Amino acid sequence: MGDGVLVVLGDGEWGALRQQLFEQLDQQAEFFRGARLVLDIGGMSLKAAELGDLRSQVSERGMVLGVVLSRSAMTEQNAKSLGLDTSLGRGRPEPDDPEVDTILRTGEAAILVSHTLRSGFSVQYAGHVTILGDVNPGAEVVAAGNVLVWGRLRGMVHAGAEGDESAVVCALDLSPTQLRIAGRIAVTPGRKNKPQPEKAYLHDGQVVAEPWNPKSK
Q1: pTM score > 0.70 for this model?
Q2: How do the domains of the chain map onto residue ranges?
Q3: Rounded to whole angstroms, how far apart are CA atoms 194 and 204?
Q4: What is the mean pLDDT of residues 40-67?
Q5: For 5-101, which CATH class?
Q6: Mean pLDDT of the 174-195 span
Q7: Is 31 left (phi over 0), alpha (psi -120 to 50) or beta?
Q8: What is the CATH number of domain 110-211?
């Protein structure tokens, strides 16, 4: 992803969310080290001093706070005053890369998250999302394309979020609190047998699930 690693904070009080963010960065230090963070803080209004402290704390962990996404005009103005980007698509392209490699249509782009998503964290991306880990209850994944979870999917997942009814959701243990594909919401049945890899997709307008064999076509 050209803009960096996207981290979306949930709702709550800034102090608690800030602490939760730093705990996540510390626990996954190897994954995040050297990364350019894209932080979506929703509608929270933050002062320039708070954003500056956040940038310093991120820098001390060997990362760069590159983009702050917010619905708050105050936060956006303060972020700009600190030289932070406030929208996606402004990442610096590699000078030797051809332009075609930096312009991807929706659904062609993909990101890899190589750690478990704990409660309160979410990933939102205009393409495919692969999680190497679990998606815990209270966490969410929203993708314009497919979602693949190489672990237990027990949180909320929305594939084809921009209307793609061909999107699929695959997981080694498919037990979400809510599963959506495009505009359809699945009714999650109770577990009747031991967990197995499954794939969910739309069939005749309904979300259905079947055993998933990654080696099959």
Answers
A1: no
A2: 5-101, 110-211
A3: 27
A4: 89
A5: alpha beta
A6: 79
A7: alpha
A8: 2.160.20.70
